[in-house]
Design brief:
Blueprint (H helix, E strand, L loop, with lengths): L4 H9 L4 E10 L9 E5 L4 E3 L7 H14 L3 E6 L15 E8 L4 H11 L4 E8 L8 E5 L4 E4 L4 H17 L3 E5 L10 E8 L5
Antiparallel strand pairs: 1-2, 1-5, 2-3, 4-5, 6-7, 6-10, 7-8, 9-10
Helix pairs in contact: 1-3
Length: about 200
């Protein structure tokens, strides 16, 4: 999502409602990597791309639905040998996409504004786990402080912030697995960490 922070910052300043679809993971050959995003506002205006055109129509519809019902979903798109005309990636890869309403989320606002202004920030979102936590977000600053929350224990937010800080320090976007209680036991939650680091001066 932070790849379109400049445009989203303008939408936030205007008070627009919007949903964002973000590539969570990629398998095989895919046009865009994790963090690539498509946003759709309440008027139907779209910015960004998750696949360079292959599945944009279906993802656009998911964003419209997320705006209507206020829920987050993760959808998988891939090539289908059984039905060559099914919505999928012509390149033969597979992508998982998180679609969630985002316009009123304080963590999204903090991360987007930092990225749009050339600052250092990470946006952490739950991309696998209990339905009630899916799409929950946390914005992590360069000093390790954060805004927002993942909806679980304080220890979960603390662990997520530490994991985000490590990826932020490396200038990387990727996923990490943690337990719902914030311990490092994998299997409970998968978090997508998007890093925005200004280019070296």
């Amino acid at each position: 999502m932070l790849d379109i922070a400049g445009e989203l910052s303008g939408w936030l300043a205007e008070g627009r409602r919007f949903a964002v679809a973000t590539v969570v993971s990629v398998g095989g050959s895919a046009p865009r990597g994790p963090g690539a995003a498509l946003a759709v506002d309440a008027d139907g205006t779209a910015i960004g791309s998750v696949s360079g055109g292959c599945v944009e129509g279906a993802v656009y519809d998911l964003c419209v639905r997320a705006l209507q019902d206020g829920t987050a979903v993760v959808e998988r798109f891939g090539y289908s040998d059984e039905d060559a005309f099914a919505v999928g990636l012509t390149c033969g890869g597979v992508i998982d996409v998180l679609v969630a309403p985002a316009g009123g989320d304080p963590a999204v606002r903090a991360a987007v504004e930092a990225a749009a202004n050339g600052g250092t920030a990470a946006l952490v979102r739950v991309v696998r786990g209990p339905a009630g936590l899916l799409g929950r977000s946390l914005a992590v600053r360069a000093d390790g402080t954060w805004e927002g929350g993942l909806g679980g224990a304080t220890e979960l937010d603390r662990t997520a912030a530490a994991e985000a800080r490590a990826l932020l320090d490396a200038g990387r976007t990727g996923t990490v697995e943690v337990a719902e209680d914030g311990s490092h036991c994998p299997g409970g939650l998968t978090l997508l960490v998007e890093s925005s680091v200004p280019p070296p001066g």
